[in-house]
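// run 5 | inverse folding | seed 20
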């Protein structure tokens, strides 16, 4: 009886192990394909996300911005910064998130500007 139970457990572990390994391989392949699709701009954006600790999507959600325009970023930043001022009953934590979101979005704008300059230089030559 114990022998059969041990065999069942070993077989179950092997099946789960193979499924886990297969899922890991698929996830790695999907990650590599996404990285290739993002290309160089994606790498810079990912680096900026890593440095700031905030993704582009999170920064856009915090400042309630759908498109990256400097005017809209500044307008929403000023409003949210004032609303969350500690002296006005706001939260320093939320205020700092607003500041980090603005920094992240400005970094993304810089990355896009650099890419546009490079593509213009490449098209001129």
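// decoded
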């Amino acid at each position: 009886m114990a022998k059969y139970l041990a065999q069942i457990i070993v077989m179950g572990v092997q099946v789960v192990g193979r499924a886990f390994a297969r899922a890991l391989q698929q996830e790695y392949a999907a990650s590599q394909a996404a990285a290739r699709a993002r290309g160089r701009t994606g790498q810079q954006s990912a680096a900026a996300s890593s440095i700031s600790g905030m993704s582009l999507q999170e920064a856009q959600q915090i400042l309630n911005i759908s498109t990256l325009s400097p005017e809209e970023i500044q307008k929403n930043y000023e409003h949210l910064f004032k609303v969350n001022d500690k002296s006005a009953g706001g939260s320093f934590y939320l205020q700092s998130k607003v500041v980090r979101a603005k920094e992240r979005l400005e970094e993304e704008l810089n990355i896009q500007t650099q890419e546009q300059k490079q593509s213009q230089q490449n098209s001129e030559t």
